[in-house]
């Protein structure tokens, strides 16, 4: 009975996605991945982190403005936070949304979708690195996407960051927004503007602002707040793609939480991010470099650095990835930068049908 209650949002949305456009063709597809990694410091190795992925998408039809998409992951490699997600287990909806488009220039998206905030890293297993909390955010709400000549705009409102009231899981970029027992974000407004200077060159700015609700006192006080902005640039020349961004983030923790933990009331930091990739036939070579500086009272007093070079090969049914991650710090659930060295190699294979 408890499991059924925990999954009600998942089942309801999946059924709605199929039924509300029952007259149209629905495409079911899937895939899986698994990973082998070696910790460079301890020489410990691990094989597994497997995940089965199921996709449900509506086939594109010009005569209807409606569309939908969902991605369901099962397994320990699904990049979900099992202690704080909707299901409490290793299966989760990474995304699930319904959209309505008008004239191919204006689209409204309802459901769990990606926040329009800057760019995302192109690697697989090293993940968002020091884009932490502002990388691959997947929240529940309403988003508008519009195209105006050389300008693309997006505006969104997300009442929740996950399906349940007490869950907090952005799936890929998780463990950076509190927890079920401390606080979570809600009522987040997001805006993004991208200018296409030429077909291969873009600049953009994104902002987001929302509340933090505590889960400690039982009163669910919304006295915390978060806001951030990013400036970014994207340039493609021949087979090369180069991206840079600057992010500044501020988090004012809920009173009950910082009083209980002794943490500073405000967590502040800034990040400098870059990515360079090169495409050669079926091979992609890339490197992500992210730096972070704490502006928090009593925070880490050195520049945090993380870099992740890697290569992937498209063998036809999927990709094989060889990646390396090295970092001298890490971000916790409060967006606080902590000292700590880590280095590891990752070998990953995925397959899709």
Automatic annotation (TrEMBL):
Write the record's keywords in alphabetical order, separated by commas.
Answer: Plasmid, Signal
Signal sequence annotation? 1-24
Q: What is the name attached to this protein's record?
A: Uncharacterized protein
């Amino acid at each position: 009975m408890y499991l059924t209650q925990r999954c009600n949002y998942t089942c309801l949305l999946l059924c709605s996605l199929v039924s509300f456009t029952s007259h149209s063709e629905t495409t079911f597809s899937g895939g899986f991945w698994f990973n082998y990694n070696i910790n460079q410091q301890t020489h410990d190795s691990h094989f597994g982190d497997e995940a089965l992925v199921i996709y449900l998408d509506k086939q594109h039809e010009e005569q209807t403005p409606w569309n939908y998409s969902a991605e369901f992951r099962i397994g320990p490699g699904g990049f979900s936070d099992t202690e704080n997600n909707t299901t409490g287990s290793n299966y989760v909806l990474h995304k699930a949304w319904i959209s309505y488009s008008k004239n191919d220039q204006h689209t409204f998206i309802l459901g769990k979708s990606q926040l329009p905030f800057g760019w995302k890293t192109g690697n697989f297993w090293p993940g968002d690195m020091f884009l932490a909390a502002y990388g691959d955010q997947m929240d529940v709400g309403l988003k508008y996407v519009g195209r105006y000549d050389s300008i693309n705009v997006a505006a969104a409102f997300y009442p929740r960051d996950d399906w349940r009231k007490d869950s907090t899981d952005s799936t890929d970029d998780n463990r950076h927004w509190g927890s079920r027992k401390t606080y979570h974000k809600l009522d987040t407004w997001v805006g993004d503007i991208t200018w296409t200077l030429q077909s291969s060159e873009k600049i953009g700015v994104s902002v987001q602002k929302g509340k933090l609700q505590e889960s400690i006192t039982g009163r669910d006080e919304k006295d915390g707040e978060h806001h951030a902005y990013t400036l970014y640039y994207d340039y493609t020349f021949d087979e090369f793609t180069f991206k840079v961004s600057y992010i500044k983030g501020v988090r004012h923790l809920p009173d009950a939480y910082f009083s209980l933990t002794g943490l500073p009331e405000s967590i502040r930091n800034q990040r400098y991010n870059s990515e360079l990739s090169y495409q050669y036939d079926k091979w992609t070579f890339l490197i992500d470099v992210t730096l972070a500086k704490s502006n928090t009272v009593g925070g880490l007093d050195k520049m945090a650095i993380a870099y992740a070079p890697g290569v992937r090969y498209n063998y036809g049914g999927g990709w094989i990835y060889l990646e390396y991650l090295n970092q001298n710090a890490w971000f916790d659930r409060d967006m606080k930068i902590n000292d700590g060295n880590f280095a590891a190699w990752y070998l990953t294979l995925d397959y899709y049908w």
